[in-house]
Amino acid sequence: MIAEQYKAMLQGKSVIRQLAEWSTARGAEIGYENVFDYSLGNPSVPCPAHFTEVCRRLLAEQEPVALHGYSPTLTLPAVRAAVADSLNRRFGMHYTKDHLFMTSGAAGALAHALRCVAVPGQKILTFAPFFPEYKPYVEGAGLTLSVVPPRCEDFQIDFAAAESLLDETTAAVLINTPNNPSGAAYSADTLERLAALLRRKSAEYGHHIFLISDEPYREIVFGGAAIQYPARFYEDTLTCYSFSKSLSLPGERIGYVAVNPACEDAEFIVPMCGQISRGTGHNCPASLIQLAVAECLDETSDLSVYETNMELIYAELKRLGFTVVKPGGTFYIFPKALEENAAAFCEKAKKYDLALVPGDSFGCPGYFRMAYCIDTDKVRRSFAALRAFVAAEYP
Question: With the C-alpha atoms ordered 293, 295, 296, 298, is the resulting torsion angle positive or negative?
Fold first, then answer.
């Protein structure tokens, strides 16, 4: 017989993906340029020219059998060393290659991190609004996801609610900053308070509570703000990263786990990742892409378009009377819908060729997400549809 667990999941497909599919189908009818698709967080800017040049050089100059062979179980040592050096320069850390493990994107990084620090039956605490795929990631590891309700005025952490949900079964706290879907970036004060809470609760329960920091949007911050690196605030931190957004490489599926050298049993975690790979199938990410990103670690795509789009959309939403927290980063904005039922609100928006994602699956009913990683001209053109939608449906 087939696995009923996964068969049942067919009835709960990602709302984001469903809306992306609707947008594609609608685009085939009226031209995709006329569908204002704010559904999927797929980067809209090209990767740096340097990355392409590095790939070409590697393909032209490296011996093919070696270049395309399996990487070692713990991934390429030179690449791990390069990532460690970059993080140390940027954030004042003390990583070595023995604290880095290359993965198949941030999803692969999270798959390893969760299994490194938790055993089936334990709890992972996260904060709404949160990326909906956290639920299958966590449950797939035999764990339970516990969600702290959102602090909607600024989408920072509600510490009283967090403390009430932390208990002796909590293995780790999972954060995402800058955050998908809210765009909020945790402040230094938020991270200091979180670190203090985790130290106190670890002492109370007699075991280390880890922090798993999911950071695929780390480089997309607005207003010239400094990037806050959570591992600098808390010793027991595993950092999960993807180059999908910084270098616009989502299809290459490359990222890493970085183990804070000061954390409990730090020397064992990367070797453990090698063993976890055997059971998850996330082993040996592409050697070519590992080598290529190692030469592009301190650069990004031109990410400025996302801040341009954010400012335009934020101003328009405010003009139309929406309640919305101004994002500090990412390429998402998370306004409050104009009715209590965000799913109904987003369904009505489709009549105006607007693809908006309801916030229910993000743990924040009544809100909706717009992924503004689209051409700026299309953002501007979408405002006529948005105004028509609001005027007709919410006069």
Answer: positive
Peptide bond into 129 cis (omega under 30): yes
What CA–CA distance (Å, rounded) separates 137 from 379? 32
Provide the domain limits for residue 14: 4-47+301-393
Q: Is the pTM of this model over 0.85?
A: yes
Tell me the HSE value of 245 on the side-chain side, using a 13 A CA sphere: 26
Q: Which CATH number fits the domain that encloses residue 345?
A: 3.90.1150.10
| pLDDT tens per residue, range 191-225 | 999 999 999 999 999 999 999 999 999 999 999 99
Q: How does pLDDT run across 234-288, given as a tens digit for each residue?
A: 999 999 999 999 999 999 999 999 999 999 999 999 999 999 998 888 888 999 9
Tell me the CATH number at 168: 3.40.640.10
How far from each other are the two terminal CA atoms of the chain, in whole angstroms? 54
Q: CA 73 to CA 80: how far, in whole Å?
A: 12
Cβ(310)–Cβ(327) below 8 Å: yes
Residue ending a domain, among 244, 277, 294, is: 294
Same domain, 70 and 177: yes
- Considering Cα of 157, then 159, then 161, then 167, what sign does the dihedral take? positive
Q: What does the pLDDT look like over 306-352, one tens digit per residue? A: 999 999 999 999 999 999 999 999 999 999 999 999 999 999 999 99
Q: Per-residue b/e over 43-73, b at no fewer than 16 CB within 10 Å? A: bbbebbeebeebbeebeeeeeeeeeeeebee
Q: Which of 268, 294, 320 is the last residue of a domain?
A: 294
